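We both want to read discrete structure tokens more fluently, so let's practise on a single case. Would you supply a protein for us yourself, any chain you care to pick? Would you write everything just below, so we can both look at the same thing?
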Amino acid sequence: MNNRTKTLVVGAFVSVLVIGTTVFASSSNPGSEADPITTKSYVDTQLNSKIGSLQGELNTANGSISDLQKKIKALEDKVASQTQTPTTPAPTKPTPSPTPAPSYKTGVVTASTSLNVRSGASTGNSKVGSLRSGASVTILTSKSVSGATWHQIKAGTLTGWVHGAYIKIK
């Protein structure tokens, strides 16, 4: 804002303040030269007083604005210096290799006619199916029960337990 504009704004503001102020005549003859409403020197004194007061406030405000602008610039510089710090990329994790599929033994049924497949490793467990002599099986696991070897087998969709004496492991 240039000085001419500031002067016009201050003048308008002061005019509003002075005109808006109720002034009581101290003279016994209102409207005479002694009446402060019509005395030019009284109006000039009031205007100059208000202008001086407003200029002081404007100078204080300009000083405060300048201080705030310096603080903002300092904060912007600080933020800029913090955001330009180089970052180290996060370490990448090695891709785990797939777990190899277990290798199972295979066998052939050696029973003379058919072999019962049971739900557990004992003749006391229920029969879940049977396999003909010569059928191929995959042996999933083996265990010893009362001195006899039992194999958990899979043949097609049939899974169960068979006595080891009737399986020839390949």
